[in-house]
Amino acid sequence: MSALGIMNPAYSVSRSEILRWVNGLLDLKLAKIEDTASGAVACQVFHCIFPEGVVLSKVNFAARLPHEFTANYKVLQQAFDSIGIEKNIDVQKLIKAKYQDNLEFMQWVKAYFDSFFPDAPPEYDARDERKRATEAYRLT
User: Residue 93, exposed/middle/buried by CB under 10 A (0-12, 13-18, 19+)?
Assistant: First the structure.
């Protein structure tokens, strides 16, 4: 699942569909794909799939600067490595918050998620998970 060719149907999912999906799943109000550039959204999506695999308390949900984004992607890459997902995240592209790069990454994230939950997402209280993670993050 790590290598989806650009011709894969996953890459035809629209920006509005990605935003509708991620906003619904994670109880967010993102307006643009570029709002996912911090890596926090992807970390939480994978936490939804693999709660034990992503250390959400290491994710900076308030990240605004490139070095903070990089730290979030490091958490995600470590999760991928521990879970066995063979995907190299192109952090330098994603942290620039360019529409196309972030759209393609989020299309891949959605395709991965859908491969686990093709019918309906699991019960997941995204807001509560973020709150607990943010409180733990502040203590570090």
Answer: middle
Q: Are 58 and 77 in contact (CB under 8 A)?
A: no
| pTM (predicted TM-score) | 0.91
DSSP secondary structure letter of residue 117 = -
Q: What is the DSSP string of 45-105?
A: HHHHH-TTTS-GGG--TT--SHHHHHHHHHHHHHHHHHHT------HHHHTTT-HHHHHHH
How does pLDDT run across 17-36, given as a tens digit for each residue?
999 999 999 999 999 999 99
State the pLDDT at residue 53.
96
SS3 category, 136: helix
DSSP annotation string for 5-57: -TTSGGGG--HHHHHHHHHHHHT----SGGGGTTSHHHHHHHHHH-TTTS-GG
Quick one: which of 43, 36, 46 has its CA closest to 1?
A: 46
* Distance, CA of 41 to CA of 69 (rounded, Å): 11
The number of beta carbons lying within 10 Å of the beta carbon of residue 39 is 26
